[in-house]
């Protein structure tokens, strides 16, 4: 089961959150310090959330960070899964349960949908299994 950390608990998990954000989010090395600083500030001020999955022995199995954002076109709130990271292979049913827990949180925050972005095809498949539908793909041309 997914458990939402309180802002006061974030410092205890910060090294793990940094590890997850560094490995799951695709941020360039030069931008990483600013990115992590903003993430910490957002987590401590409840502008971002951190959820953890623990086993019965209270060992950390997975960590997810989210943000409640507003769709600028529709004005609707939505929950963005910023990153999700599992420390071991997980049965797809567990990811489905995690989505259900996030849905409960999102509904309480008046969100109309949950969204995530990824370049990882394995994550796409896991999302589809958990009930997500592809909405679009983003392409980028880097100007040097």
What does this entry look like structurally?
It is built from 4 helices and 5 strands. By secondary structure, it is of the alpha+beta class. The chain has a single domain (2-129), classed as Gcn5-related N-acetyltransferase (GNAT) (Aminopeptidase). Helix 1 (10-24) packs antiparallel against helix 2. It is globular, with a radius of gyration of 15 Å. It starts with a strand and ends in a 15-residue tail after the last helix.
Which terms summarize this structure?
Aminopeptidase, alpha+beta, 4 helices, globular, 144 residues
Secondary structure: elements and pairs:
Layout: E1 2-4, H1 10-24, H2 32-44, E2 49-54, E3 60-70, E4 77-86, H3 92-108, E5 111-116, H4 121-129
Parallel strand pairs: 4-5
Antiparallel strand pairs: 1-2, 2-3, 3-4
Which CATH architecture?
A: 3-Layer(aba) Sandwich
CATH fold title: Aminopeptidase
> In CATH, what is the class?
Alpha Beta
Mean pLDDT: 92
Nutshell version of this structure?
The chain is α+β, with helices and mostly antiparallel strands. It contains 4 helices and 5 strands; from the N terminus they run E-H-H-E-E-E-H-E-H.
